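Annex B. Sample input.
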Amino acid sequence: MAMRPKVLVVDDHIEFAQLLGFNLEKVGCEVFMAHDGAHALRIARAQLPDVILLDVMLPDLDGLSVCEILNSQPSTRDIPVIIVSALSANWTETRKSNARYTRFFTKPVDLKVLRELVKTTADAHAAAAHASN
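Annex B, continued. Sample output.
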């Protein structure tokens, strides 16, 4: 039996995070939630998800800082991060960030497109992680 892909959803808008989580569970993902950057980092280190959906505007650390920290740590650096933000991708370029992320979606997002991307990205990450072990 195949393992369910693990997805960490990080968004301070609880209803939006729950909506994403519900849609991801429908396609067989195991979903973890965080509503701020510090909690997201703790969950990412503990659960080692196959993909992270990350908002930029969080109440403590901004999403790009979270992404930079994840990228700098051996245990989390290879986890694909998909940014889902009300800000545009152009804003992130003004920040001069070293954050590496897989894709950037601006809210509102097409849930079907996002769900399919998360599922394929998570499956590919899980397969790569399994192959390297």
